[in-house]
Amino acid sequence: MMSTVTDRTERLLAILLLESMKGTSQREKVIRLSLAGFSNVEIADLLQTSSQVVAQHLYESRKKNRRRKK
After folding, report:
1. CB-based burial of residue 64 (10 Å sphere; 0-12 exposed, 13-18 middle, 19+ buried)?
2. Exposure of 42 by Cβ count < 10 A (0-12 exposed, 13-18 middle, 19+ buried)?
3. What CATH number does residue 65 fall under?
4. Given CA atoms 60, 26, 31, 23 in this order, what sign does their dihedral have?
C-alpha cells in the first residue's frame, strides 16, 4: 500500500515539475528532472522520448559545464 502512495506522489510531483517548465527546452527539462533524481528511463517516459536522447542531453550538458570550468 505504501508503495502505491509513494508512486502516486512521485508521479504528481513529476507532473507539477513538468507543468512549471512549460516553454522550457527539452534539454533544460532533462537537466532539471535529472537533478530532481529521476533516472534516464523515467525522464524519457515523462518527456515521451528515448533514454538515448536523454543521455545525449545530459552528456552534452556535462561537457559544456566542463568547458566553462576551464
Report:
1. exposed
2. middle
3. 1.10.10
4. positive
37-45, Cβ contacts within 8 angstroms, sequence gap of 24 or more = 38/14, 42/14
pLDDT in tens, 12-42: 888 888 899 999 999 999 999 999 889 999 9
What is the pLDDT at residue 70?
61
Could you give the number of structural domains in the chain? 1
Domain of residue 28, residue span: 2-69
Specify the pTM. 0.78
H or E stretch covering 66? helix 51-69
